[in-house]
Each structure stands twice: as C-alpha cells, then as structure tokens.
Amino acid sequence: MRRPGYRQPLKQQLGGVKAMFIRLSVAVIVVVICMFLLMSAMSSSNSNSSSAEINIEALWGTAASDGWRASSAPRSDWPPPASESNGYLRVRCNGGLNQQRSAICNAVLAARIMNATLVLPELDANSFWHDDSGFQGIYDVEHFIKTLKYDVRIVESIPETRKNGKVKKIKAKQIRPPRDAPISWYTTEALKTMKEHGAIYLTPFSHRLAEEIDYPEYQRLRCRVNYHALRFKPHIVELSQSIVNKLRSQGHFMTIHLRFEMDMLAFAGCFDIFSPEEQKILKKYRQENFAEKRLVYDERRAIGKCPLTPEEVGLILRAMGFDNSTRIYLAAGELFGGERFMKPFRSMFPRLENHSTVDTTGELGKNTMGLLGSAVDYMVCLLSDIFMPTYDGPSNFANNLLGHRLYYGFRTTIRPDRKALAPIFIDREKGHTAGFDEAVRRAMLKTNFGGPHKRISPESFYTNSWPECFCKKSAVNPADKCPPHDVVEILNSQMESEGISDFEASGSNLTSAVDK
C-alpha cells in the first residue's frame, strides 16, 4: 500500500499528461474528419442539385466534338477496283427505306470484298409500303455510281454477252445468305458460286453481313456509301429543304420520331393501356408477324421495353425545360389509339407539325405512307436542330438518323433512357408526383446528347460509326489522324497506274468526305 501523502514520480505524471494529450488529439482529428465529411456531403448534395439543370439553349446548338470531325476517306493503301471482276453481284434489299439503306451499304462492301461488279441494288416493293419506286425512283443513280468509283464497279443491269453470234444472258445463281454472315462466307462460299455461274443473286439481303468488322477501311467504305453516295433524288431534296426552311423561318425546331404505331406496340407486347378491342388487334398482329413469346406488360414496362406514350414524351420535354412555344415536327406513321393518346401531348406542346401540314406542294398527300414520305421525314429529321427518337430499339429509321446526325457534325439528339425513366413514370402513376421533374432531369443528364462516344453492344455501327469514320487533325493515336488533303489525287494516280481509264477523274465527293 502507498503511504498517505505519497506522490507519483514526476516521470509518471508526465506520462499521464502525454496520454491525455494523445487522446485529446485523436478526438480533435475525429471531429475534424467528421466535419470534413459532412461538408463534402453537403457540397456534393448542392452540386448534384445544381447539376440537375439542363441548358436548353446549348441543346439548340451542336454537341461538343472534342476535336473530332467526320472523315470516311481511306487512310491507308486502298487500291482501285481491278480491271477484271470475279462476276456480278445482285441483291434484293428487303424491309423499309432505312433497313434497305443499311443493306445497300453492306452490298457495296460485299462487292468490294469479292472483287465483284455490283448490279444496282433492288429495293423490295414490300407489303407494308406498297411502293415500287425502286432505287432509281428514290436515289440519284448517277451520283451513287460516280461517288463510289474508287471503291467498286457498279452497273444498272447485268449486260448481255455475245458468243458465236448469239446473245447470251448471264443468269445469276440465287443464294440465301446467312444472317450477319462473316467476311469469310463471302470470300469462300459466295465467291466460289459467283465464279462458277458468273453472277449471284443474294436474297433477302437485310442484315446479311456482320456489322462489327475489325478492319477500319471497310467500315469507312460503309460510311462513304451511307453519308455520301446515297443521295435522294433532287425533287426529294428540294421538297425536304422547303419544309425545313418553312419550319426554321420562325426559329429553332425539333423533330420527334414518335414510334407509337401498331407494328412497334405489337412487337413490344405492351397492350394493357389499350381497350379490349385494341388489344385484340395488337395481339392478332403480333401472332401473324412475330415469334411466339410470353410477354407480361408490367415486367416489360418496369425494364423500359415499352415505347414511350406521347404524354410521356411531353412530360420528359417539359421536365427538361422546353416550354409550350417549342416548335415540333412529328415524323410518325398512323398513331395507334388515335387522338386520345395525342391530346395530352398536344396540350403541352401545341405547335406541332408533320409533313402533311407543311407540304405546300401537295405531293406528299399522294404518298404519305410510301418511300417518298419516309425519305422526306428522314431529311427533315437530319436537318433539324434537335432530333428525339422515342423508341430506338429495333427502329432502323431512328438508328440510321442517330448515326447520320453524329456524322453530320454532332447534331443534338435527345435519347430517353426508357429503363431509367420507367420507375419514375410508374411512381408518378401511383400518385408520387413530388420530385418528378428533378428525377427526369437526373436521368436525362446521364444520357449522351449527340457527342462522340464509344460504341457498346447492342449499339449498331450505323447508329454510331465513331471512331472509324472520324478523325482528328492533332491526334495522339496515328490511327485517328485525318487523311492527307491530296487523297483524291493519290486515288486517281493509283487508278491510272492500274490502267483503269474509264473513270472520270473528278472525286469531289471524296474531297467532301475529307473536308467534312
């Protein structure tokens, strides 16, 4: 036991003070860290709150390019078509206008791969469009052939041959190519048959060549076809331009591809919002046109598989900050369900137009549902300030336009993320309206508004041809460097050295591909 009055040695007293100081220091550090974390959280919250605002004025311009520009001209050795080909390639492009457009690009590439002479592609006069305009009725044939002269030989029909004084017609051997066929199929099976018969006829020819090809020059050829060679006939371009001029005479305008038509609703299996009679029509259409599949509306809706309704489109735009003075051009077929679905949208955005209301010539009134109407809608959507597809899943029209607008100078697109928006709309329908606009803005801010971005499956090459069909003047990666401005002269000299003299040495279209 310690005696009364016993005092600890000085060393022990100092040790106690030191321990107490350490404990106090730790406590202070903990308080400081907590304060820092609290302030960071508050700062982050404020930052998120302020970032949930969308600059509408900026959207009326183009998206940031980060120094990229469109360029589909060759960047490596690209020999001209050989003086002798391996035979003739015929294709029948099935589907609507934009599915056919992709098929034409694939046909040109297939001809290049096989060193074949391409016969002007046939456009299917399908049962949906009831339109037999054909390639010559929609596209500028002379421009198409001339633009691609450095890539493939193109003829309007297989020529007749004379042998022993008799006229002989080459009969193309018909083949059904596999879906998304690899290049190897064309260089083996297809080429072997072509050499045996002198010509092959590939039908149907929708999605019959793999999209992802690990050779950038082939992908750039697709872009040359899609964005330079495929030009609508002059009267279609003029009609489209007159509509755009009329719309733009009152300022900015937006185009919306309102995909709320019977075929898409039947495909998606989203029936429950319709009347029993309408559901019967949709189910019948699905049974006749699509594979049997168990589809539950609530499940489809919850994961964003249903097309947006016109009202939902209006709510998105209003939440983003667009007001009722916004001028909107609707590119759409006949909306299923009629005016009752359009009424809420029209009440929010009354300044609505379509090609029938702005066409002063009356030409479209005769061909509203045909290839002409689709071609005009395509051009107006391409040239608009903002384009918004409401269902860009299997929609060739929307997907091709997204890719074309990207190539055309990163023009603004609004692409609703239906999966992210679905729970927000479902909550609203349950009466939880507080914070709805904020939630929509947050979801939309996570989307891309038309700038360069990496292509990730299932995004199509025709939807996003970056980086293959784009370049930078000052690129770190040599593969991204823009081609020389004398590319046309280089290609012309190659053609001359090969002894190919039946091509006109023009090349203005490839120059535009370089200088885009």
Structure notes:
Pathway: Glycan metabolism. Keywords: Carbohydrate metabolism, Fucose metabolism, Glycoprotein, Glycosyltransferase, Membrane, Signal-anchor, Transferase, Transmembrane, Transmembrane helix. It is found in: Membrane. It is a single-pass type II membrane protein. The protein has 516 residues and is α/β, with parallel strands linked by helices. It has 20 helices and 14 strands. Strands 2, 3, 4, 5, 8 and 9 form a 6-stranded parallel sheet that branches. Helix 17 (418-429) runs antiparallel to helix 18. It is globular and about 80 Å long. The relative contact order is 0.14. Residues 1-7, 30-34, 36-50 and 501-516 have low confidence and may be disordered.
Mean pLDDT: 85
Secondary structure tally: strands: 14
- Choose one word for the global shape: globular
User: Radius of gyration, rounded?
Assistant: 30 Å
Helix content: 40-55%
What order do the helices and strands come in, and which of them pair?
Blueprint: H1 10-51, H2 56-59, E1 68-70, E2 88-93, H3 97-114, E3 117-119, E4 122-123, H4 134-138, H5 141-147, E5 153-155, E6 161-163, E7 166-168, E8 173-175, H6 183-197, E9 199-202, H7 216-229, H8 234-248, E10 254-257, H9 262-268, H10 276-289, H11 297-302, H12 310-320, E11 328-331, H13 339-348, E12 352-353, H14 355-358, H15 371-383, E13 386-389, H16 396-407, H17 418-429, H18 436-445, E14 470-472, H19 487-497, H20 508-515
Parallel strand pairs: 2-3, 2-4, 2-9, 3-5, 8-9, 10-11, 10-13, 11-12
Antiparallel strand pairs: 1-14, 6-7
Keywords: Carbohydrate metabolism, Fucose metabolism, Glycoprotein, Glycosyltransferase, Membrane, Signal-anchor, Transferase, Transmembrane, Transmembrane helix
Subcellular location: Membrane
Membrane topology: Single-pass type II membrane protein
